[in-house]
Amino acid sequence: MMRIALFGTGNLATHFLNAFEGLESISCVQWIGRKENPPRANTTPYFNAFQSDIKVDVCILAISDDHISEVAQSFTTNALVVHTAAAQSTVVLAPHKRSGVFYPLQRFSQDQKLSWKNIPICLEANTKTDLDLLEKLAQQLSNEVHFVTTKQRLYLHAAAVFANNFCNHLLGISQEITSNAALPHALLHPIIKETLSRSLDSDAAKHQTGPAKRNDIKTQSKHIDILTAEEAALYRALSQSIYKTHNK
Fold it and tell me: Of 37, 96, 121, 240, which alpha carbon lies 20 to 30 A from 183's?
């Protein structure tokens, strides 16, 4: 049985804890957080500091990027120490000699129901032995386990920001625009679903349409006239990017 020490009490750490507590092959032997009391009822012992007298195989630092280095330096162990950050190398885990990355590519929110089997988990470690250990752990959670370098992980995260964060922001703007026109956003749901489905099945760039691609200045000007200044600036920037992409 693999023994885990889990650091953090945020959304990701909580989802990890829920998953580990449901696996017979994994034992979460200590949960470490700064809060005085555990955020929820659980079967895992909760502490405010790492317990060096409890045997551990892997320490997972599921905490914010800014605190990884500080927390890593606050304890000593012979176990493998990993963080879950997309844009950080293993250097931030010094002085631990056994270090790595256990990065699940997904957004995590409170009370969210997840199917871990479909979530890609990206792994990195300094030795093959530790990489094999992480692979064994990851395979208990997911069918999508990948070996990814630090640089590849940074590219992957940047791509995820475009696909998730930016896309969600644009959908939010579209909701505001339809609301300002006293129209239900549901009118856009069929085209949103079709666009996402088509883009997932093939090369998204090949399916680009719209006034920006065909350089329809008159239609674009009409759109800009009804938008706020911020929306108009974003509209212009995206339209220019689309036009340049398809008119090289």
Answer: 240
